[in-house]
Structures are given as C-alpha cells and as structure tokens.
Amino acid sequence: FVVEFDLPGIKADSLDIDIERNVVTVRAESPGVDPDREMLAAERPRGVFNRQLVLGENLDTERILASYQEGVLKLSIPVAERAKPRKISVDRGNNGHQTINKTAHEIIDA
C-alpha cells in the first residue's frame, strides 16, 4: 500500500514520522511568512501539518519505507506475511499429508 501527502514548501528535516502500534503520525512545520513583508498573494499553507493514519492489522508497520521528493511525502507500507495467502497441509489420517492449492479463505468459504 502507498500513502502520499502533499507538503509543498516543507523542508525534509522538519518531517517527523512516528509509529505506535498500528497508528502512523506524520508531523511537519512550514515556516510562517515574514511579518515585515507584505504579501500580495500566498497560496501555500503555513504552520503545522499533523495527520494520523490507523493502519489495519494486515500491514507490516515494522517495514514501512518513507521518501520525500518535490514536496510529496510517500509512505510504502507492505502487507504483513501473516496476511498473505498461503498453502495449508491437510493431515489425511494415514501419516501422509496432502497439499491443497487453496487459500485459507477459500477453504473456510467452501
């Protein structure tokens, strides 16, 4: 999964990303306009940026990658291994095992 935040004018060293359990918090601060300078137009947001994302249990918060380029913060959040489809071995009762080529969801829904 990928999450992108538009943060124009934010310096990379002002970004702060925290993860606590399955909550990701992104904070950044854009410097205010010089009060001695008269602005004709100001289109960039100024001040503090603060967002929280609650991630599902099927995402791997230990392996989140963050990059910041051209005013866009990008978080890449992989799916946890435990949430990926896998094969289940079924005991046939005769000390042999048979592999079923179905996911756990397909077996339960059958």
TrEMBL record:
It comes from the Bacteria. InterPro entries: A-crystallin/Hsp20_dom, HSP20-like_chaperone, Small_HSP. It holds the Pfam family HSP20. Residues 1-93 form the SHSP domain. Belongs to the small heat shock protein (HSP20) family. This is 18 kDa antigen. It comes from Mycobacterium leprae.
